[in-house]
């Protein structure tokens, strides 16, 4: 079981070398991450974008492009579509967002002809290594789905459990987060959390254990759970933190990134191959950790 990104990178390095298709690769942090991923035997890459800019940036960071394929396409939308098509056709294992807006990137991912749709619900998973916590935390959904219904929350759990399994967690503990730990009809997220708990008990959410509603402190802090008298294997030991909506998830994500000592990686799943969906403002380490996470997910399918 991977408890840190160092362990996750080691796991990724032990898998068959993956190939990343980089959409609009003319970005320094992206190329630094691709360079590091190759050096650590995680993945090689096809760089799709403006070749002149790619070569200029690569030279500035000491990146040997002889180890990588470059497809010259200066048009942002065409480059995005080409990068997706490579994954769609099986010529790459992972899709990585480079220097383009998320909406343009996702438009290509959802393309009806060469996109990565599977019929499953797509959702975003952010994996955090946080100083002081002895395990990786899987936050979902903090970036893609806005105000999920009960059915959508169940599907988000199923997607996230697949990621946790790929990371070596045999039976992840899932906490549907709410402001309080009691069921209150006037607070719909607590009703959903209770319903998800009952679905888990009925075997409708296999491969994991779900218990909620739980407040954040009770989900991740064993002492808090004991102090408040909440006795359940999930309470205080949650691996997966299911947020009630994108507001709660995104605020938590950005607070952690900006105020705590963390490492994190992000993927979009429910697609035919893992999609690395990071912000253009993310540093190269976050992009590297995201590639490693995606490689582990891809490796769980083929290794």
Automatic annotation (TrEMBL):
<feature type="domain" description="Phosphate acetyl/butaryl transferase">
    <location>
        <begin position="7"/>
        <end position="77"/>
    </location>
</feature>
<dbReference type="InterPro" id="IPR050500">
    <property type="entry name" value="Phos_Acetyltrans/Butyryltrans"/>
</dbReference>
<keyword id="KW-0012">Acyltransferase</keyword>
<dbReference type="InterPro" id="IPR012147">
    <property type="entry name" value="P_Ac_Bu_trans"/>
</dbReference>
<feature type="domain" description="Phosphate acetyl/butaryl transferase">
    <location>
        <begin position="78"/>
        <end position="295"/>
    </location>
</feature>
<dbReference type="Pfam" id="PF01515">
    <property type="entry name" value="PTA_PTB"/>
</dbReference>
<dbReference type="InterPro" id="IPR014079">
    <property type="entry name" value="Phosphate_butyryltransferase"/>
</dbReference>
<dbReference type="InterPro" id="IPR002505">
    <property type="entry name" value="PTA_PTB"/>
</dbReference>
<comment type="similarity">
    <text>Belongs to the phosphate acetyltransferase and butyryltransferase family.</text>
</comment>
<keyword id="KW-0808">Transferase</keyword>
<dbReference type="GO" id="GO:0050182">
    <property type="term" value="F:phosphate butyryltransferase activity"/>
</dbReference>
<protein>
    <submittedName>
        <fullName>Phosphate butyryltransferase</fullName>
        <ecNumber>2.3.1.19</ecNumber>
    </submittedName>
</protein>
């Amino acid at each position: 079981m991977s408890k840190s990104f160092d362990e996750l990178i080691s796991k990724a390095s032990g898998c068959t070398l993956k190939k990343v298709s980089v959409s609009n690769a003319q970005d320094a942090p992206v190329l630094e991450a691709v360079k590091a991923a190759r050096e650590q035997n995680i993945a090689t890459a096809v760089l799709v974008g403006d070749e002149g800019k790619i070569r200029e940036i690569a030279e500035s960071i000491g990146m040997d492009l002889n180890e990588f394929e470059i497809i010259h396409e200066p048009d942002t939308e065409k480059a995005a579509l080409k990068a997706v098509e490579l994954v769609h056709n099986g010529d790459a294992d992972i899709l990585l967002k480079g220097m383009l807006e998320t909406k343009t990137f996702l438009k290509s991912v959802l393309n009806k002809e060469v996109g990565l749709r599977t019929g499953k619900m797509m959702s975003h998973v952010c994996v955090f290594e946080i100083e002081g916590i002895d395990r990786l935390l899987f936050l979902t959904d903090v970036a893609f789905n806005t105000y999920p219904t009960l059915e959508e929350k169940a599907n988000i759990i199923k997607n996230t459990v697949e990621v946790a399994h790929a990371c070596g967690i045999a039976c992840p503990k899932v906490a549907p987060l709410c402001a309080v730990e009691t069921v209150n009809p006037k607070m719909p997220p607590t009703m959903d959390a209770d319903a998800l708990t009952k679905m888990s008990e009925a075997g409708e959410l296999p491969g994991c254990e779900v218990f909620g509603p739980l407040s954040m402190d009770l989900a991740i802090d064993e002492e808090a759970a004991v102090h408040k008298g909440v006795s359940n294997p999930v309470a205080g030991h949650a691996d997966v933190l299911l947020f009630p909506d994108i507001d709660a998830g995104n605020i938590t994500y950005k607070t952690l990134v900006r105020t705590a000592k963390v490492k994190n990686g992000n993927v979009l799943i429910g697609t035919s191959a893992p999609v690395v969906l990071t912000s253009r403002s993310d540093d190269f380490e976050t992009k590297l950790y995201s590639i490693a996470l995606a490689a582990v997910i891809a490796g769980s399918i083929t290794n």
